[in-house]
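Bench log, entry 3. Co-assembly request; chain sequences pasted below exactly as received.
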Amino acid sequence: MAKKTIMIVDDEDDIRSSVKTILERAGYTVLQAINGDDCLKKLKTQKPDLILLDIMMPGTPVRDVVPQIKNIPIAYLSVVRVSEAERESLLGQKNIKDFIQKPFDIKELVAKVKKIVG
Amino acid sequence: MDIKKELEGQKALLLVLPFDSYNEIVLTHAATLAEKNTVCYVSLNKTFASLKEMFEKSGVNTKNIIVIDGISKTVGTASASKIPGCYFISSPGALAELSSVLNEFFDNGFDYIVVDSLTSALAYQGKAPVSTFVSKLSRQAQNRSTRVLFYSISEKQEEQMDEIGTHADRVIHMDSGGEKRFILQKA
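Structure output for the full assembly:
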């Protein structure tokens, strides 16, 4: 069976590289993008099974990036704190599947990714 | 560390906090500062709704706090209608817009302006605009009774933050227990 592909979108090199290492060890192929604009550009030629999307990044704000991503599940991976009600509201949007709070637990991250993409 | 006492001697202070105890320390400080004084709290990484929940859990006197929320519009959770006690700005990197809103709080004689955090601003802006922002607020504070408290996270862009901190009166690096590790004092 083909490996599932995850795209990590984060402006911080250390976060991208640590998530890449964690998910590759868990058997996934990992793509990287440095912000929302880079993500949208790469999606023209690549179609990951899941996008892990930071919120606080330079460039186009995520509120404008998310609607441009069609048919690919997204999980926010961010240091930003939202209320429970806001979290529920975000998760109610059609392709938002999870909100993973930084700092994240490695096992929890892998489990959440697995739950979404298998 | 007694944050009120620390701010008595400094008009503009930058506290560099460890990530693991960051929120715990800033909430403790907010509770202390807002107990009897007015606070304008600039939140660049917690939405107003989330901050309100955190303040309530931590026993912060929210009657004395006005929040400037710089993240909800970025996330897409900002309320379309006006919320008492909260101003929304467009993004954590909108420092000119933030400075403009903060002018009102200086003019209205707020006791403390708290900026949580410069690390979030630095995710959007380069060192120069963040330095300019810190410098401007620090200068504004010199002629007024308002004290400015900036926060940043120690594991991120520490070298840049120490340079930015030269525009404040003092930079204090703190440990996880909320005590001082070392101090950089403006010459």
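Chain B touches chain A at residues 19-20, 23, 45-47, 49-54, 71, 73-77, 91-93, 120, 123-125, 156 (CB under 8 Å). The helical segments of chain B are 3-8, 22-34, 48-57, 72-75, 95-107, 118-124, 127-142, 158-165.
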